[in-house]
Specification:
single chain, 199 residues, alpha/beta, six-stranded parallel sheet, two-stranded antiparallel sheet, 6 helices, 8 strands, 44% helix, globular
Length: 199
């Protein structure tokens, strides 16, 4: 067998192995406040994702890492290292975003700022909720994603506090969101796979 046949044969095997391996996608809960509804939304998204089986999905709760406010400590808290290690394990993300004062929560912004390279060259989808579907928070998040070299996908499910929640606390999504969530997840998986080769 010639050198070139061996070389291209090896490359083909590597590509096939990469294709066969499932990507790891983290569904990041963007709120840490008491009474939050993001766990309900996150589990709903995970249920839809698991039914497709095109990647490994897990809930990543910012609250579990007990991150301090950036710049207020010496940075040696174990949660900071654990947060970066978790992000490094992931190939892509789905942010569950709630709108506070026309933007994302302070907890999510703080968590975004506590990592750098762990975000780079990965894809993300956004599922937002609020009085206007969380659209303004999602737009702010897109700008931050660009700075962190996260490729955010276009399809964006927006959930209304008035029509998708009962008493603003019990999540009861309308069926019409299912198609958008599915499309968003497909885009995240496709882009995450493409960007994995860049990393």
């Amino acid at each position: 067998m010639s050198f070139f046949k061996k070389l291209f044969g090896m490359k083909l095997e590597e590509e096939q192995t990469m294709t066969a391996e499932k990507l790891n996608i983290g569904i990041i809960l963007g709120s840490t406040r008491q009474g939050r509804v993001s766990p309900q939304v996150g589990e709903w998204v995970k249920g839809i994702a698991n039914s497709h089986g095109n990647a490994n999905y897990e809930i990543v709760d910012i609250a579990d890492f007990n991150l301090p406010f950036l710049g207020t400590t010496d940075g040696t808290e174990p949660g900071i290292a654990a947060w970066n290690e978790k992000l490094t394990e992931l190939d892509g993300f789905v942010f569950i975003v709630q709108e506070y004062n026309h933007s994302i929560s302070g907890a999510l912004k703080n968590a975004l700022d506590f990592a750098r390279e762990a975000w780079h060259n990965k894809a993300a989808g956004i599922v937002s909720y609020g009085s206007t579907g969380g659209a303004r928070a999602a737009e702010h998040l897109r700008g931050i994603c660009g700075e962190l070299k996260i490729a955010d996908v276009r399809t964006h499910p927006t959930l209304s506090l008035f029509t998708d929640f009962e008493n603003f606390s019990e999540f009861k999504p309308q069926e019409l969101h299912l198609q958008n969530v599915t499309e968003m997840l497909n885009e995240v998986v496709a882009w995450s796979g493409a960007l994995k080769s860049v990393r």
